[in-house]
Design goal:
Elements lengths: L8 H10 L8 E5 L4 E2 L3 E10 L7 E2 L6 E6 L2 E4 L5 E6 L4 E11 L3 E8 L3 E3 L4 E13 L14 E5 L6 E2 L3 E8 L2 E2 L4 E6 L4 E2 L4 E2 L12 E4 L5 E5 L4 E7 L7 E2 L2 E14 L3
The structure holds copper (II) ion (CU).
């Protein structure tokens, strides 16, 4: 769902005809503010399906089909840690989740969510964003460079917990383990990070782009590169890159989402 949902049906029709990508820039979040950890413990998480660059409309999440972490190749199921909440966006409240992940051993923790497909009324399609984000304990690299065997995913070629603002991030779009050429990848800044414990966003520190969605296209081998201009969380969403194209008789956009954390050099 997008800002279009606020408009009348007639206006929606007109807007869609004029700007077919207006319905984009929604991102599944798996969020915690501090991704580089120095102590073991239970790390709180927030799961929100949102428009984080424009700090806009929040979509209702259904119960995820799967939610887990991977550390040193071992899967840690997190489904029984999900707690439903209402996330209060600027425009609306919507169903979201909190959770936590037990971080015990040094290394990377790849957080993976396979959400329930979301029905996008303005486009009459379902959207399912298979999403990865990353934590690290004690700086030891263990898992971040590995594909997780998802139906579709972005495999990072730069360490996702330690991107330099002003440098680049390169990812590879995969579907069923094969590279996806010509995938459309939306790039989004998390302008207003969620406030843990308050179930709402903080004050935005950036405004959405005047030209709308920021987009890259993957090359023949599935690679794309983006120059990261600012510290914070950056999301990449390869649209419709997955093999599943239909859900309950309607079109399904099965997207691959990945989040990275960039820092200023200080
Ligand atoms: Cu949207």
């Amino acid at each position: 769902m997008t800002f279009l949902s606020k408009l009348s049906a007639a206006a929606v029709g007109a807007a869609l005809a004029l700007s077919p990508i207006a319905a984009s820039a929604h991102f599944q979040l798996v969020y915690t503010p501090e991704v580089n950890l120095t102590k073991p413990g239970d790390v709180p998480l927030m799961l929100v399906f949102w428009h984080p660059f424009e700090n806009g409309f929040v979509m209702d999440m259904g119960e995820p089909l799967a939610f887990y972490a991977v550390n040193r190749g071992k899967k840690i199921d997190l489904m029984d840690r999900l707690e439903p909440i209402a996330f209060a966006g600027i425009e609306n409240d919507a169903a979201a989740y909190t959770a936590s992940v037990p971080v015990r051993r040094s290394g990377d923790y790849v957080l993976v969510i396979e959400p329930a497909p979301y029905y996008e009324e303005s486009e009459d399609i379902y959207i399912q964003q298979l999403t990865k984000s990353y934590l690290n304990l004690n700086q030891l690299p263990t898992d971040w460079m590995e594909p997780q065997g998802l139906k579709t995913e972005i495999v990072p070629l730069n360490r996702p917990t330690n991107i330099l603002a002003g440098s680049t991030f390169t990812g590879r779009v995969m579907s069923n383990g094969e590279p996806v050429a010509g995938a459309e990848i939306e790039v989004e800044y998390m302008a207003a990070e969620p406030r843990m414990g308050e179930n709402k966003p903080s004050e935005p520190v950036a405004s959405p782009m005047p030209g709308g969605a920021v987009v890259a296209i993957s090359d023949d081998e599935g690679y794309f590169t983006f120059g990261v201009p600012k510290a914070g969380f950056w999301g990449f969403a390869a649209l419709g890159s997955g093999p599943d194209t239909e859900f309950e008789g309607k079109e399904l956009s099965q997207d691959a989402v990945l989040w990275v954390r960039a820092y200023d050099v200080e």
